[in-house]
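Colleagues,

For the teaching module next term, I've prepared a clean inverse folding example: a structure given as C-alpha cells, and then the sequence designed for it. I'd like students to try predicting residues themselves before seeing the answer, so please don't circulate the second half yet.
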C-alpha cells in the first residue's frame, strides 16, 4: 500500500463527501407553505445577503415554486427587478400571515414596487401564479412546520 498517495486522497474524499452532503451548491433554505389549500415548497431568503440577491440572475423558476422573503419585523417593503429575468408576482404578507397586497413585476425593471401596507413577508412567484391557484388579497398562508426566522 502506498501511504503517501492515500494521505493526499483523504482530504479530497472528505471535500467530495461534503459537496455531496450539501447538494454541491450553496446551502439553500426551504420551507413548506400552505396556500389556497395546497402545500408548496419555497426557497427562503431570511438573511440580508439572501434577501438582497433574491431571484436575480435566474432564467427560470419552476411552475409551483417561489421565494419567501422573511424579515425580522413588519414595515413597508420595497422591491425591484434589477438583474431579474423572470416575470414575477409578489405577495406582501403581514405578521398575521395574511396577504395584504399582490403586484406584478416586469423583468429587469428597476421601478420600486412598494407594499401598500406593512409586511413581514414577501412571496415572489411566477407571474400569474396567485391567479392560477385562486389566491388573492385577504387570503392567508400557513407554514407546514416552524415558520422560518429572519437572520442578519
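(Answer key — instructors only)
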Amino acid at each position: 500500500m502506498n501511504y503517501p498517495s492515500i494521505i493526499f486522497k483523504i482530504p479530497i474524499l472528505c471535500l467530495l463527501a461534503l459537496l455531496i452532503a450539501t447538494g454541491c451548491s450553496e446551502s439553500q433554505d426551504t420551507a413548506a407553505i400552505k396556500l389556497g389549500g395546497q402545500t408548496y415548497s419555497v426557497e427562503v431568503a431570511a438573511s440580508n445577503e439572501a434577501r438582497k440577491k433574491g431571484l436575480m440572475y435566474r432564467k427560470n423558476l419552476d411552475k409551483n415554486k417561489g421565494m419567501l422573503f422573511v424579515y425580522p419585523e413588519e414595515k413597508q417593503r420595497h422591491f425591484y427587478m434589477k438583474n431579474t429575468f423572470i416575470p414575477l408576482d409578489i405577495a406582501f404578507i403581514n405578521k398575521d400571515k395574511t396577504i395584504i397586497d399582490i403586484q406584478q413585476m416586469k423583468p429587469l425593471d428597476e421601478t420600486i414596487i412598494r407594499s401598500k401596507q406593512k409586511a413581514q413577508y414577501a412571496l415572489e412567484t411566477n407571474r400569474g401564479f396567485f391567479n392560477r391557484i385562486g389566491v388573492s388579497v385577504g387570503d392567508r398562508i400557513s407554514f407546514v412546520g416552524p415558520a422560518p426566522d429572519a437572520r442578519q
